[in-house]
Amino acid sequence: MIFGFVVLAVSVTLNAQQVDFSKMESLKPRSIGPANMSGRVTSIDVVRTQPDVIYAGSASGGLWKSESGGIAWEPIFDNELPLSIGAVAVSQKNPDVVWVGTGEGNPRNSLTGGYGVYRSLDAGKTWELMGLEKTRNVHRIIIHPDDPNTVYIGAIGSPWGDHEERGVFKTTDGGETWKKILYVDKMTGVGDMVMDPANPNKILVNMWQHRREPWFFTSGGPSSGLYMTLDGGKNWTKQSAEKNGLPEGDLGRMGLAFATNNPNRVYALIEAKQNALYRSDDGGFNWEMINKNRDIGNRPFYYYDIYVDPKNENRVYSIFTNVHRSEDGGKSFENIIGRNLIHVDNHALYIHPDNPKYMLLGNDGGLAITRDMGKTWQFIENLPLGQFYHIEVDNEFPYNVYGGLQDNGTYTGPAYVLTNEGIRNDYFLPIGGGDGFDVVSDPDDSRYGYAMSQQGYVFRYDKVTGRSSYIRPTHEDPKVKLRFNWNAAIAQDPFDNSTIYFGSQFVHKSTDKGSNWKVISPDLTTNDTTKQQQDKSGGLTIDATGAENHTTILAIEPSPTEKGVIWAGTDDGNIQITRDGGTTWTNVGGNLKGVPAGSWVAQIKASRYNNGEAVAVINNYRRFDFKPYLLRTKNYGKTWEHLVDENDVFGYSLSFVQDPVEPNLMFYGTEHGLYITIDGAKTWSKFNNGYPSVSTMDMVIQERESDLVIGTFGRSIWILDDINPLRVLASKGQKEVMDASVTAIPAVTAYQVSTRSAHGPANPGNATFEGENRRNGIASIKFFAKKPETPQRPNREANANGAPVRGQFAEGQGGRGGQGRPGAAGGRARGPQAKIEIFNQAGELIKDFEIPVEDGLNVATWRFDENIPGQEDEPQGGNNRFRFGGSVPALPGTYKVKITVGGESDETTLEYKMDPREEYVMSNLIARRDFLRDISVINNEVTKMSGKISEDIESVDKVIKALEGKRGEEYNQLRTKSNDIKKEMEELQGLIGRGGRGFFGGGSGDGPTPLQTEVFTLLRAVSGSYDAPVQAQKTSLKQIEDRRKELQQKMDAWYAENWSAYLSAVKDVSFAPIGTN
C-alpha cells in the first residue's frame, strides 16, 4: 500500500501554526447553488434489492447518496480530501460495503485528479483510504459478486504524464494489500473493464494509450488493446485482428459490455482508424464488426460507453453526446432522448438488473432518471455540482453573483434572497450558453455586462431582455489569426467604467464597452508554433473544440492603484507588464525562480496597497507537476518570492485574493480546498469549517458586505459571510485575541428588510433545491472571548417565579455555534455570560441583554429593537404567546456596542439602515416608535391582568383537586363555590385574553373580542409599516386604553368582593390559604 499521501497530509499539520478554526465554528460558508444546471456525473450504482438507494459520483463534487429514489440527496464524501469520483461500486452481497475510486476517467482538458481508493463498511457513513494514491485517476471498480474482499481496480491513470501506477489492481483481503495484475506501460491505462456475469474469473479490459498536453491530445497507439483473463487476472491474453477479428492498426479507447441474460453475447465499441461497434457471440473470443455508422458514438476520449439490457441481449445503449438505443443487436440505433429534454454529453448509465425500465443517466448536466425505459425522464434538480471557472459580484442589494460553468453556460443569481425560504434554482438567470467563463458586470448598470463562451466568443448581455451582442475582437490584419484560450482573459479598467480589456495572444482594449477594439500589445506569448496544432488534436479521432488552444493570454490585471499599469499572464509561462498603458511591455516571467518555464499563469492579482506589487497564481499540473506555485513581486516583476511550498498546502494553485481591508489576510484556493493566512503568507491554514476539499477555482470579496464569494469547480457557489473575525485575527494576532477576555469585532452594516414568499411552489417537498440563505432583518454582534474559568454567581435579578428580568438574555451563538439559551434564574448557577449593551448616538443605553459565552468566536443577535424604560422585555404571568413586552423598533443610525465578559469590556460600532429598496421618512419612524411604546405600555398592563387571573385559576384548580374524595356538606358547598368562581374568572379572562386558547389568545363564541387580540391587531398593523400611525390607529389605541381601564376597574371590584369571599370560604373549611391578595 502507498502511504505518501497520508504522510503529506500529516506533515502539513505539524509544520505550520494553524488558525484554530475549532474556536470559530460559527464561521461557516453557505452553499447557495445553483443546481438547475448541475455538473458532470461520472459513475452510478444502486443497491439491487433496495432500488431507492442510489450512489452518484461526480467529476469534482464528491459522492452523493439518495435513499428515496432520487428525491433527496446528501453528500457523503465531504470529509475526504479528493472530491473527484471516477468510480463507485456497491457490494450487492453486502450493500454496506461501498468502494470509491477517486479521479475521474474522462480525460478532457478540465479533468480533476484523485488520490487512491476508499472503502466504506457502513454504507457511506465513514470512509477509509485503502491505498493506490498514485494512480491519480480510477475509472472502473468491480467487486467480486460472492466475495466482497476481492476487488478489481481499473486505473486509467493521469493523462498528463508518464507513470507506472496504472492498469488493473486486485485485492483479495479487502484492500489491505494490492497486486498489479495487468500493466502495459506508463502511457496506458484502463479505458474500460467488465466482468462476465456468469463467470467472475473472466474479465475483459481495454488498455488505452493516451496522452494529454496543454496544447494537444493523443488517443490511441500500439500499446492500446483488448485483454482477457479466465483465471481472475493470473494470466492475460491480448486479442488481435488476426486471431480475434479486431480492427487492424493502432487502437484507442473501447466501451465493453456483456449481456447478462446471455453472457456469450459481448459488445465492444472500438476506437480505431475507423470507429465501429463489434459483437461477439462466443463470450469475447471472436469479434465481428456490425456497425460503423456515426450514430454509434463520438468523442471517444470523453465518452465511449456501451450497455446492454440485462434481460435482452439485442437491446443495446450507446451513450455519448446523445443516448442511442438499438433493438437489433447493434445493427441500427436511434436517439431516445428528445432535444433539450436532458443535458447532452453522457458518461454513466445504470440499468436495474431486475427492472430494465428503471435507468439512471449521468451527464455533464447532472443526473436523470427514467422508470419507463426512456420514454420520460426526471432531471434531478437538487445536486449542486456546478463547475465554475470564474466568479464575480456586483453591488446591488442584495448583491448578485456571476459565473461561467463547464458545459453549462453563464449564470447570475442573488447572494441571498429577501424571502422566508432558501435560494432556489429559479432565482438564477442564464445569461450565456456554451461553456461559460469569466463575467464582468457593467459598473455603471448591473443590468448589462460582458460574458463569454469558449474560444473567445465574448458578448455584451442584457439581463432584462435576454439580448446579447457579440463583440469578439478581430485583428486589423486579416492574415493574423487570433488565438483565444478555452478560458480567455477579460478585465474591467478600474479607472474608466467604459474601458475593458480582452486577451488573445494580444491585449485588446475597448473604450466604448466593446463596440470597438484596439490592439495595445505585441504577441505576449512565446508564439511557439509547435504548440499551435490544436486543429489536429485528438489522435485517432480528431477533436478540435478549442480546448487545446495554446500560446494565449489567460489573465489580464490592470493595477487598481496606478493608472497605465497592466499585467498579463499566458498559458506558456510569460508574465508581461506595461507601465504606460500598453505602449511598451516587459516580460518578467523569466524572473520566476523555482517555477518551470512554460507553466500556466492562471491568475495575476495586483495589490490594492502598493504600486508594483502583484501575486501570480501558477500551476503546472498539465505537465505532471502537481506542486503549488504562488509568487509575489513588490518591484514590478523584477524579483519574486514564493508564498507557499508543497509542505504548506495540498493541491496545485488555482486562485488567490488578498483582503482589501487587512493586508495580512489572504485566501488561497487549491485543487483540494481553501487555505487562509492571517500573517501575510508566513503560515497557511486549511479552512474546513463546513467547506469541502473541493477545487476552489476563483474567489472575490464583496466589499460592502465583507463576504468572501467562492466559485468552485464541482460544488457550485459558496459564500463566507462577514470575514471581519478573520480581519481582527490578522490585525491583532491570534494569540493576543484568543488570550484576551473579550475582543469586539467591527460589525458589517445591517439592514431592516421586508421579506416575501419564495418563487415557485409554496410547499415544494424534498426535491427542490434551496441554497442556504443568510438571516435577514437582524444585526450580528460578533466578538472573541475567553470563557471565564469559574461560573458566574447565581442570577439575583430574577422574578419570584424564577423567570429572568428584562435584558437577561437574547438570541445568540457561542463559539461552538450553538444557539444561546436563557441563563438560569431563581438562585440557580448560570454558566459564564457575555453582557451586550447598545447605546445610541446620544450615549443613551437603548438595549441590553446577555448570552452564554464560549471560548473563541461568539455571535449575538440584535433585532433592531430598544428597551422601554420601566418595562420588562417579557412581562410575567399568563400564557400570551404574542407578548412583545418592553421593546420597540430602534431608529436607523450608528450605535455603539459594548461587550463585557468576566469584568472586561470592549466596544465597536454598528450601523443599522432601513431597507434600501423602500422609501422612509425619519419623522414617521419616530412617530411609529413612540406609538408602539404606548401600545407596549398598555400591553404590559393587560398581560399583568391576564397573568393574575391565570395564576389564581391555577390556585382554584388546586382546591378542586384537593376536594376530590372528600365528603360532607361543607366540602360540597366549597366544591360548588370553586366551580362557580372558576367560571367567573374564565369569563373575565375571556374579556382580557384567554392566554393561548385560540390563535390570538382569545376565546371562541359570539362575545366581545378579547382585549389582547385588539392590542395585537393594532400592533401588527402599525409595526408592518414604516409610516406614522394614522388617525384610525390613534383612535383604536384610545379605545383600547379606555376599555383596559374599564376592565381593570371591573376586575378590581370583582377581586374585592367575589375573590375575597371565596378565600374566606376556603378558610372556613380549614383549607390552607391559597392566597391573601
UniProtKB/TrEMBL annotation:
<dbReference type="Pfam" id="PF15902">
    <property type="entry name" value="Sortilin-Vps10"/>
</dbReference>
<feature type="compositionally biased region" description="Gly residues">
    <location>
        <begin position="812"/>
        <end position="829"/>
    </location>
</feature>
<feature type="region of interest" description="Disordered">
    <location>
        <begin position="754"/>
        <end position="773"/>
    </location>
</feature>
<dbReference type="InterPro" id="IPR015943">
    <property type="entry name" value="WD40/YVTN_repeat-like_dom_sf"/>
</dbReference>
<dbReference type="InterPro" id="IPR031778">
    <property type="entry name" value="Sortilin_N"/>
</dbReference>
<feature type="compositionally biased region" description="Basic and acidic residues">
    <location>
        <begin position="786"/>
        <end position="796"/>
    </location>
</feature>
<keyword id="KW-0175">Coiled coil</keyword>
<feature type="region of interest" description="Disordered">
    <location>
        <begin position="784"/>
        <end position="831"/>
    </location>
</feature>
<feature type="coiled-coil region">
    <location>
        <begin position="1030"/>
        <end position="1057"/>
    </location>
</feature>
<feature type="domain" description="Sortilin N-terminal">
    <location>
        <begin position="117"/>
        <end position="240"/>
    </location>
</feature>
<protein>
    <recommendedName>
        <fullName>Sortilin N-terminal domain-containing protein</fullName>
    </recommendedName>
</protein>
<dbReference type="InterPro" id="IPR036278">
    <property type="entry name" value="Sialidase_sf"/>
</dbReference>
<dbReference type="InterPro" id="IPR050310">
    <property type="entry name" value="VPS10-sortilin"/>
</dbReference>
<keyword id="KW-0677">Repeat</keyword>
